[in-house]
Amino acid sequence: MIRSVLAGTVASLLAAVAAVPALADTDIKFALDWKFEGPTAPYFVAIDKGYYKAEGLNVSIDTGAGSVSGIPRVAVGTHQLGFFDLNSVVRFRDQNPEKDIKVVMMLYDRPPFAIGTLKKTGIAKPKDLEGKVLGAPAADGAFAQWKAFVQANAIDESKVKIENIGFPVREPMLADGKVDAITGFTFSMHFNLLQKGIPADQIQMLVMSDHGLSLYGNGIIVNPDFLKNNPEAVKGFIRATIKGLQDTVKDPATAVKAVMKRYETGDEKTERERLELVLREHVVTPWVKQNGVGDVDPARLAKSVEQIGVTYAYKNKPFAIDVFTNKYLPPAADRKL
After folding, report:
1. Strand partners, 205
2. What is the pTM of this model?
3. How confident is the model at residue 140, as a pLDDT?
4. Intra-chain end-to-end CA distance of the chain, in Å
């Protein structure tokens, strides 16, 4: 009889538990700055390995059209989080003070902003741009830093002809000699020029951070209302993304396959090399190796805010704490790469 009563009680408890609805996952639409390419591997690894799902998140990822133009999508809440240029976020906040957008995780510790050119142009240093034609997409994150680059390198800007060109024709115009140099991200310009038949040893990159700029690059930004109402979801997204990044750093060749599942027309070898370049040059820097991914050096960030003021006239110059917070990051030991 006792055994029968216990069995009935257990059955009743199990039925009661089953009757309680499971908590729904939090939906997150994540906006990329560009296409599904090698550097997006950490996010897709985190999806495929269930890292986001383990945090109670249902994450979908959308492509973008540049590291500047997509910020409003996060600001208005079309996307809850996104991957965009911190410097452009600073300017957007100043123009839209009611939108308290913050970067909550830094990815590109060494920004990929660069001037791309070919050795035959004779442009080997910044001053060599004088007397040349520079092709620059208006929405390009690298071109947004142009005036600070000019000042840091004492370039006579009046001697440089700026031609506004679209992203699709940027590298073709350089390859065809219609412009002498272009602005962009290193890993976009380099591989696009290779695809145009330009030998690697003829491609020249003037990386802006090697020539006087203290700026940071792209990081993860979040819609302020979503952050206020879902702080734990933001923490979970960051934790899962870091796990995806750690796996990617350990095994880029396997990680890039997660991208190729979504980019069937792409070349896996090219995307793996693009990913490895980004990890090597822009993500796993000496500072990140020591301090872990995701955070920033406050003094350097403060200096970068000053440099942004060279390219942009502030209405109300922000403090570093206005644009970046490490409040949602896991401990440094969990962020080692």
Report:
1. 116
2. 0.87
3. 84
4. 60
